[in-house]
Write a structure and sequence with these properties.
By secondary structure, the protein is α/β, with parallel strands linked by helices. Strands 1, 2, 3, 4, 5 and 6 form a six-stranded mixed sheet that branches. Strand 3 and strand 4 form a beta hairpin. Helix 1 crosses helix 2. The chain starts with 8 loop residues before the first helix and ends with a helix.
Length: 254
């Protein structure tokens, strides 16, 4: 991977502009925009690439230090307000970059803590939305990021909940009609949700038994798995060699 330099932020903003075209200038004049939403998105993304910050104040200080000549930065209060205004545009950009037609998906989640546990009772910013959750690392207070990616590591779906939400209940937000098989850990092995996903999307949820379920064995290939394999045969593979064989097979059967 090439090392990112400070001037590469211009290329990143050009990419953002290609996905989110800027509106034309007001013909009646008016106050000029000090910092455009696309520039805010570029600053937030580039900061996470080269110098990840834990707070918005850190992002603002980083921008003031290295890009005081490139951008006309407003006050910190106005910068935070502009970040809130740019959030819908950032979500639209993320939605356009998702690989929604991925047939094979790998699901998992990660904790996003808003503060340490000792400060959880005094936390006020996200008090109405955050929650307590536990994973193999211990207890956390904050949120949980659920995501699904394809075999190339490209994001296919993203969902955001509080930390106390169970992973298995978020499968409907990570699976769509294009999904054939979704692979996850033991937290996604809910029989009710697996049957629902097969009934609604014809998607097979492949997950090992939970460590506490010692008697549960995944040794039987049921009709759902058989149907998923049939559906998988209609999906183009990833490798070029397999893709050529798949195209030849489809031509012979047509």
């Amino acid at each position: 991977m090439r090392v990112l330099r400070s001037h590469h932020i211009t290329n990143l903003i050009a990419v953002v502009d290609s996905f989110l075209p800027r509106a034309a200038a007001n013909p009646w004049g008016g106050r000029p925009v000090i910092l455009h939403n696309n520039e805010v998105i570029g600053l937030l993304l580039f900061s996470s690439f080269v110098a990840p910050q834990r707070t918005m104040k850190g992002v603002y200080t980083w921008a003031q230090t290295y890009y005081y000549r490139r951008f006309r930065l407003p006050s910190y209060k106005s910068f935070v307000r502009k970040c809130h205004q740019a959030l819908p545009h950032l979500l639209s950009l993320l939605d356009q970059l998702l690989v929604k037609d991925a047939a094979v998906r790998f699901m998992d989640s990660t904790m996003l803590h808003v503060c340490k546990l000792v400060r959880a009772n005094r936390h006020k910013v996200a008090k109405a939305a955050a929650g307590f959750g536990i994973n193999w690392q211990g207890w956390h207070y904050g949120f949980k990021l659920h995501a699904a990616c394809n075999a190339r590591g490209q994001l296919a779906a993203v969902y955001f909940t509080s930390a106390n939400e169970h992973d298995g209940q978020q499968i409907p937000y990570l699976v769509n009609d294009a999904t054939v098989i979704a692979v996850g850990d033991g937290t996604y092995n809910a029989s009710v949700m697996r049957r629902k996903m097969w009934r609604e999307h014809k998607a097979y949820i492949l997950a090992p038994p939970h460590p506490k379920q010692d008697k549960k064995m995944l040794v039987r290939i049921d009709e759902n798995m058989e149907g998923a394999v049939k559906k998988m045969s209609k999906t183009p593979p990833i490798n070029n060699k397999d893709l050529a064989e798949w195209v030849k097979k489809q031509r012979d059967t047509s």
